[in-house]
Amino acid sequence: MKLSEFKKYFNVKLLNEKPVARDGEWNQEDEGYSISLMGLDSYYKLLMKLETGGTKAELRRLDDTFVIGYIGADNPFKENRFNIIFKLDTVDESIFFSKLGLSNILRVSSVLVAKNYRMRGLSTFVYKYIVNDLGYSIISDFEQYFGARKLWSRLSKDSEIIVDVINIKDNVIIDKNVELKHGKLNDEFDERYWSKDLSKKDIRFILRKIKWL
After folding, report:
1. What is the Cα–Cα distance from 145 to 113, expressed in whole angstroms?
2. Phi then psi for 39, rounded to 5 degrees?
3. Which of 83, 121, 196, 199 is deepest in the core (most CB within 10 A)?
């Protein structure tokens, strides 16, 4: 796709998506999936080893996809496979934010967490690793369900990173180092930046290193 065509696609299609506060949770799969060990090291670069809830796991990367998984087996059919428990898909959006002086920008397009591994802070851990260790900034997706809004709220309160607010229509940063508010219920979101209609359609959050303050 030519750059001109790509920009047209971005301006027409992506900006018309609805970055609104969606009710409930995204209907993700309950279980993870597995991949063969045969091509694991060839395709998925090992970033680090970690442990979650007693499970020894690995964080790996294939292009702009990040996965956490383990080799082994509560299921005998997956004994010799790499079992994915977390998957983060991103899209490189660096070209669109160069006017803001930003580079190495990844937009989150989807997050999948296996049912038994939710609420363990895997998303927070991977987001922070991408920002602080790999040197990227992360921009929020177009639609945000309850879990995503809660995640960004937690990230904005973390002392090791910062969250800025940008207007993608005007290509300007409108607030720096914000603290996003979100209550325990779905509708208790920060109305400065989220809405259920299209009034906040040009608002995005960007997660960056603390040194950029």
Report:
1. 14
2. -110, 15
3. 83
Compute the distance between CA of residue 177 and CA of residue 144 in angstroms, rounded to an integer. Answer: 20
The tokens describing 208, both together, are 């960056």
Distances from the Cα of 173 to the Cα of 7, 80, 96, 118, angstroms: 21, 48, 14, 32
Taking the C-alpha atoms of residue 36 and residue 38, their distance in angstroms, rounded to an integer, is: 5
Query: Alpha-carbon distance 167 to 202, whole Å?
Result: 5
The CA distance from 33 to 80, in Å, is 13
Report how many helices (DSSP H) and strands (DSSP E) the chain contains, helices first.
4, 10
Structure tokens at 153: 């709220």
Determine the Cα–Cα distance for residues 22 and 146; give it in Å rounded to an integer.
7
**For 78-132, what is each residue's pLDDT tens digit?**
567 899 999 999 999 998 888 777 889 999 998 999 888 888 999 999 999 999 9
The one-letter code for the residue type at 68 is I
Domain that holds residue 113: 3-212
Burial of 52 (0-12, 13-18, 19+ CB in 10 A): middle
pLDDT digits (tens, 9 = 90+) for 144-193: 788 888 899 999 999 999 999 999 888 889 999 999 988 888 888 888 98
Q: What is the DSSP letter of 141?
A: -
Q: Contact at 8 Å (CB) between 205 and 163?
A: yes
Total-model pTM: 0.80
How many separate domains does the chain show?
Answer: 1
